[in-house]
Amino acid sequence: MLNIALFGPPGAGKGTQSEFLIKKYKLFYISTGNLLRKELKEETKLGLEAKSIIEAGGLVSDEIIVQIIEKTIKNNPEANGFLFDGFPRTYVQAYILEGLMIKLDTSLNSLISIEVPEEESVKRLLDRGKTSGRSDDNELVIRNRLKEYSDKTLPVLKYYKDKGIYTKIDGLKPISEVTIGLEEIIEEELSKNLLNIVMFGYPGSGRSSQAMKLAQKYNLEYVSTGKMLEEEIEKETKIGKRINALYDEGKLVPDEIVVELIENKIANTKHSNGFIFKGFPRTFVQSYIFDGIMKKHRLNITKIFEIKVPTLELLKRLDQRRVTDGTKPYDSTTEKIIQRLQQHEKVAVPVIKRYKKSHSVVKIDGTDTFDKVFEKICTDIETGVKNLR
Ligand code: AMP
What we know:
This protein has about 400 residues and is an alpha/beta fold. The protein has helices at about 15-25, 30-40, 45-55, 60-75, 90-105, 120-130, 140-155, 155-165, 175-195, 205-220, 225-235, 240-250, 255-270, 285-295, 310-320, 335-360, 370-385; strands at about 5, 30, 80-85, 110-115, 165-170, 195-200, 220-225, 275-280, 305-310, 360-365.
């Protein structure tokens, strides 16, 4: 889901830009102003309650806003995402929006503020008043609306700045340039959210080679904690030396190190269509950490795969790899391999069980040839991706 809020004073061009955005990104449009005008026209109870406030250019109560938005969202459960215009307009409404998003198991991706100076707003609204037929497009009410904006609405920006999802656009630029600016912000947001895969499977199941090929095919950032740790060892960093010692004892690396490496990776990744995680989350605790990291970066898990291979086959494969150049320090003896498989069994099963409760985990038979396994995974991804936006 893609959820965007357009922010800015009356007359900034939010309505005009919305028309383009809802078409291009197939979003469901929620303009609280339009919804209120509809209630007014139909003379509903809500409409009558809000009438005098709207006509004076004030802000209607948060209770009324919750009701009209709830009603609209409930009637459109199939929406690809929402574009909010004129909401949130108060600090309280920012929390209301948060609650609505949680209810829909989604979040607001971006709040984009179209900024224009006050006198420009007045000029544009007076102009619009000549044809809009809106009783609130006259100078006295316009001034009041702008005062409400600077007193009650502008402070809302702090909430989104703190959350790290605020961006601004210069609304004095020509309409087409503002549109391009909006598109750029949204495209970047989409690329973050498109496809995030978690690859589960025992050592030797083929999860790494599959994940790397998938990363290449779908332009995903391959996040393998094992590989990142190896790089630290190779570079002989402080972390690397600590890890080496742990590997020798067949132990897992402490979570702080893994979290730091993953956080850096996500923060430094640009222009990919998403992430593919391999070897993480590996423990029950890491699954909570992982959820936290994803939430923090506003990323959703799109797909979870579990590549299944019988234990004897795994042993055979790992033992064969032991005598090749590709051998890993932790797979250097049969004893170490068995130890690693046992360790994996102990920690991985509860993790997969946990994800099965909240996601659909797709089981893939990993005993097929590499290409067949790859094809099965791709087919599954592509069926899912069609429903992504
Ligand atoms: P707009 O079309 O967004 O300029 O809204 C027109 C009028 O509707 C505003 O001046 C307010 O009186 C009322 N209104 C629209 N959205 C909200 C909101 N989120 N909270 C409170 N009042 C609103």
